[in-house]
Amino acid sequence: MRILNVERKLPKKAGDVDVDYSERVKTPLIKEGKITVPLALEVEIYPICNGMQVIINTKNERNRCYFGGTDNSPEKTPFLTEVEADKLSIFFNEGEEAFYDSFIPDEIEFFSRHPGNHFQKQLFGTKELQKYPSIIKRQGDIFAVPVPYDGEEVEILIGLIDSGENTGCYHEFCQTKIDGNGIRLFSTRHTLKGEYISGERFYIAKGIISAPDHHPLILTDRFHLVMRAEGVIDDD
Question: Is the N or the C terminus of the chain less surrounded, counting Cβ atoms within 10 Å?
């Protein structure tokens, strides 16, 4: 087993999360708030974010890459998720910042980090944009950014995202009954209650997004483009 640090010691923590090692597991997993790494495989571990998180590369029948540790959100949620193998190449070749940036969908990036474009000028004044150059909101692997569209104008945004392809979009209201759980986003544990327009890869939503171990993500001021992180692999 190999780790990228001077002492060449296996990390016991990833921020607030304990990291254990066991021959009883076949793949890295998180259980009871701890990350458990298999000893039976050749595994490379790379601490990132000042030791708050780790990248785990397993080498068995094929390389598999995992990203986990303590979420740097206010609630400090423990997490572990499999990500596409090219994330490791990005980390090696371009560095830690590029690794994190690679999770942000291009469409989210477009609406958040280009304060000079006319979309952002419709939403924010120049002084506000200078003070807050990034307006991305995040809840786990869900990203959201405000968009300057409402009502029928949202069709323009859909065209920008899907390049005129058939998106199967529709406009309706989520269930908001007390005993209702809203709609699930992208087959994850994140749920939305509010107004939304849905496409295959995105939602344009106004409301509240909830998820276990996360603070609610409040999107009630205006419509937001909501997308899942790029390169996350769902559990089988």
Answer: C
